[in-house]
TrEMBL record:
InterPro entries: DedA_domain, VTT_dom. It is a multi-pass membrane protein. It is found in: Cell membrane. Belongs to the DedA family. This is Membrane protein DedA, SNARE-associated domain. The keyword Transmembrane applies. Residues 45-172 form the VTT domain. It comes from Streptomyces atratus. Coiled coil: none annotated. GO terms for cellular component: plasma membrane.
Length: 220
């Protein structure tokens, strides 16, 4: 395949954009799929850069649009299955053993989480593929809980296809302004992270409060 230089507004000579552009230029659709598979395994690699850039490459004729969607979705599934197997091999007993050593948590908390996943796991996997940060993390509990692998693959493929299509098509239609997608999705990712931190802080506060009251009552 002839090497094609993507005419981006910000030269992708380095960083994630340059790395992704190099993969797409040299490998085509499979290169985009490889980039997304690695993004699933290493969340610091941002899909909000890789996917719109892939869409822009499709708009420039470097790869076909159908190829971009197929390979990026396949890459998402492959990366998710690797994490699923990690969760499965790690196992429920080992998770419980580690959980028991953590401060501010109880075994009943983990058991309730497992019960929740048993009831809502299909929705969690499907919708989790469309939520920044949780896109990769949701695969691990699915493996720990030994969700049916064919069902997991189907849900992951469906959710990933929606997420990938939105970002790839955004890059395709925005053209050389593809990097705007990173800006808006980055804001969404930060909002999700803030919500998670607030929820965690609230959880810790609730765990500490009963202890404080109990110690206060013991003081004569």
């Amino acid at each position: 395949m002839e090497f094609v230089i993507l005419g981006l507004p910000q030269e992708p000579a380095g960083g994630v954009a340059g790395w992704a552009a190099g993969l797409v230029d040299t490998m085509g659709g499979p290169g985009a799929g490889l980039a997304i598979a690695l993004e699933n395994l290493f969340p610091p690699l941002p899909s909000e850069v890789i996917l719109p850039l892939t869409g822009f490459a499709a708009g420039q004729g470097v790869i076909g649009l159908a190829s971009a969607l197929f390979w990026t979705t396949l890459g998402s599934v492959v990366g998710a299955v690797v994490l699923y197997w990690i969760g499965m091999l790690f196992g429920r007993d080992r998770i419980h053993a580690i959980w028991a050593r953590l401060p501010l948590v109880r075994s009943s908390d983990l058991e309730r989480t497992e019960q929740w996943f048993a009831r809502h796991g299909t929705k969690a996997v499907l919708l989790g593929r469309m939520v920044p940060i949780f896109r990769s993390l949701i695969s691990v509990p699915a493996g720990v809980e030994r969700m049916s692998l064919p069902l997991f693959v189907a849900l992951t493929a469906a959710g990933s296809l929606v997420w990938n299509s939105v970002l790839v098509m955004a890059g395709y239609w925005l053209g050389d302004r593809w990097d705007l997608v990173e800006t808006y999705v980055g804001v969404l990712s930060k909002a999700v992270l803030v919500l998670v931190l607030v929820a965690f802080a609230g959880y810790v506060a609730m765990r500490l409060r009963p202890r404080g009251r109990a110690q206060h009552r013991r003081v004569p």
